[in-house]
Task: structure prediction
Amino acid sequence: MSPEIVRLRSDLERIYENQVAAEEKFRNETRVLPRAQQLSFRNLLHYLALRREDLRPLQDALHDAGLSSLASAESHCMRQVQAVLQRMGYSFPEGSLSELDAHAGGQIIRKRAADLFGDKEEKQIPHLMVTFETALADDYGSVKQLLKAGMHIARINTAHDNPEIWAKMVQHVRKAAKSLDRSCKIYIDLAGPKIRTTIMGKGWKKERVKLRERERFFLAESTTVVDRREKVVGCTLPGVIKDLRQGDRVLFDDGLFEAVVETPGEWMAELYMHRVSAPKARLKAEKGINFPDTQLSVRCLTDYDRSVIPFAVAHADILGFSFVRTATDVEELQQLLLEFGTPPLPIVLKIETAEAVQNLPSLLHQGMHEQVFGVMIARGDLAVEIGFERLSEIQEEILWLCEAAHVPVIWATQVLETLNKSGIATRSEVTDAARAAHADCVMLNKGQYLLTVLATLQDILQRSGGHHTKKRYIFRPLRIAERFLG
Result:
């Protein structure tokens, strides 16, 4: 055996030992999970142990040696390491080889996606979810057309409309699915905490205030009595101001305004406007606020969300959990759903805050207390929270960890958005849509050209899906190669 192979084997043996150690360290956390989820949690641990260090030099050396570089092994991480070690002559004791190989890992993910999202005719592309707008409550024909066009899941956002309108939407979907003999799940999104601006000081009559770069202003609880002569922006979510610390960033209107906390306070904090990217430096009421650096103590599950849950349990197949941040948030909703009977309504954890990204392994572990659940990469708020420059990187990391945990993923927000609104796609969003094939489900926002978007997206996904399974690239025949070589 060459010295290079000996070094490679030593490095892989160390990685394997780290995977075994991680499994042992979290043995108690594994035992509390359902048996079917224990295998998946152990695989997540193996993957996290693998990704703790920079493997790029090792991967280059493995590739040069004609061995697996361990890429695309998310669903069966330990077994891949063991397979490479076996190629190097390493002998494992009888019964110590992981039962989770590439075939088994992929099979688990496909089954859980089918359990969560339902059946679909086209097996090579992800499930397709469509967000319903208010008008569809009175338009059965359009709902039926969406099913014919390929919709697998109908999304109802409870941040808008009311139970009467939601019920009409559900009725149309059920009726259309029955008439077409197709599966279509009902996905209901909890609204989550509403964090919006109010204009409380100067400019309050017009509900907008002019804020320039390097200017100081105040952020206050919306119930605070303020001096109308000062520039004061109110926050609709109670309890946020006291959590702010000096240096924390505060983002307004999808990140168009970026401020920094200079002087914290119980009810009011002084902020410094660091950047204004809006064409007009006017912040209006009812714009979103993000706190990417702040550990918020406010509850994730609001009273309004609790009031919606009985409707969701009665009518939905899947429940979307907005602005989830910690495992405790997930446990609270799981316990609440158990009060309505078993099995509980499956949950989709919407990853849309920086805190949720940091806590993703613990969120996945808590989700695994149920047999089936999912994750949504909610790229709208997530991009604002983590910075647009990091979105591509972070959405990849979420996909990797979820595949390691065998958790189905929804790719959401602004998929073919320009096409949906104007009828013409941009080049960049077509490329973005192709990346969505790495997920198990793709969510479309409401728009005027939904039927066109569904047809275009399916075309893109079918072409892209022929080149890879999840993130593992596969080689279908290339016509360009056939034409050139003959």
In short: Residues 478 and 484 are 10 Å apart (CA to CA). Residues 3-25 form the longest helix (23 residues). The chain has a mean pLDDT of 93. The first strand starts at residue 127 and ends at 131.
